């Protein structure tokens, strides 16, 4: 298609450039309360009310098979590449609400969380996708979806290969206790290492109380068992993390992160009159929990056997090779090669 042909979706709906906000700089700050490099401190200028940029998907690149919800990599009209979580996935829209509230809260507390956006999807971009499962997912996800900035070259955190300091481990364990994250265990760390730093992903399995609002307060008062947390072996300094982070979790901050959730994912929630009423319901349990959760974090021995120290193919002894029959030259040569390699 030459120049002057029908403009792509990107050209039709490209959003205005996003001004550099404190939300943007928070990626690089160890703590949200520190001085920002341009405009001033968070206290002086406040956080922007609306952080999530909306982009339009222009190409479905490939599915990420590691994820249970079958997230995919997409390109968008801002020329960004995103990990897309689909509204049509079986986990439901509450998973996406949790991703936004907890992801944005984490970033404002100074933790590294890749930038989140909402992505408008026209399922037509998946027409050439050969995988039927992906086709179905795209068809079921027309409209708004969630995107997380793709971290190219990142790899999954391995507690045996990477050292984490007690202070950083403490901040992450405290944060996971606050949001009741059940999905940062050694089985499924949901941490990426990128440019030598830890990045937090996947906050869909948090805030269990939003699945049963009438019991939310009682549920949010429950303790947090961090025994299986992937950072439990690093001596997390939870007291220091609580002293540093709990005062930052204010009603204003929580109201702001709840404001980032699009109306369409809150509308029609049983028992609520409006999307804003649902947003308000997210504030109270987190606010109450922030004050005292550090007193209710358990760090015992892990509840199940840990994985072996190294993969089996490294540690297990190979079975002895069968002795070649006399006169079988190829088998004898292969056996010799094996003996040399094993020396
Ligand atoms: N921002 C990112 N940059 C690079 N890779 C990512 C990013 N987010 C996710 N991934 C990769 O995709 C995988 C799946 O992502 P994620 O854990 O968010 O999906 P999920 O469907 O919620 O997974 P599950 O519930 O099975 O843990 C991750 O384990 C990671 O390998
Ligand atoms: Mg995951």
**Share of residues in strands:** 5-15%
Largest sheet: 5 strands, mixed, barrel
Number of helices: 12
* Distinct small molecules bound, one entry per kind: adenosine-5'-triphosphate, magnesium ion
Number of individual domains: 2
**Any low-confidence stretches, pLDDT <50, length ≥5?**
1-49, 308-321, 330-343
Radius of gyration: 24 Å
Strand order of the largest sheet: 1-2-3-5-4
| Mean pLDDT over the full residue set | 81
Q: How would you explain this protein's 3D organization?
A:
The protein is an alpha+beta fold. The protein folds into two domains: 20-49, no CATH class; 50-298. 32% of the residues lie in helices and 14% in strands. It has twelve helices and ten strands. It has helices spanning 9-13, 22-25, 42-45, 93-108, 132-139, 166-179, 216-220, 238-245, 251-259, 275-292, 312-315, 329-342, and strands at 53-63, 72-76, 81-85, 116-121, 143-149, 155-156, 191-194, 197-200, 224-225, 297-298. It has a five-stranded mixed β-barrel. Helix 4 (93-108) crosses helix 9. It is globular. Residues 64, 66-69, 71, 83, 114, 148-151, 154, 156, 183, 188, 190, 192, 201-202, 204 line the site of adenosine-5'-triphosphate.
